[in-house]
Amino acid sequence: MSRQDCGGDHHHRDDCGFGAGFALIVVLFILLVIVGASWLF
Predict the structure, then answer these.
(1) Is the separation of the CB atoms in 16 and 4 below 8 Å?
(2) What is the dihedral of CA 7, 8, 12, 18, to 10 degrees?
(3) Where are the transmembrane segments (predicted)?
(4) Are 12 and 4 a contacting pair, CB within 8 Å?
């Protein structure tokens, strides 16, 4: 079992959830930048 497993104890699960949420925010931010750039230019 690796430490980054989502099925570990609650500490590891919290880290996994934070990582997934952060990745989602990054993807949404990139999409926002692309849409904003195409709208401005």
Answers:
(1) yes
(2) 10
(3) 20-40
(4) yes
Q: How far apart are CA 21 and CA 6, in angstroms?
A: 13
Read off the pLDDT of residues 1-41 as tens digits, 9 standing for 90 and up: 444 555 555 555 555 566 778 889 999 999 999 999 999 87
Residue environment code for 23-37, b if the CB has 16+ CB neighbours within 10 A, otherwise e = eeeeeeeeeeeeeee
- Residue found under tokens 């099925």: 7
For 37, the enclosing helix (H) or strand (E) is helix 10-40
Residues 6+ apart with CB under 8 A from 15: 4
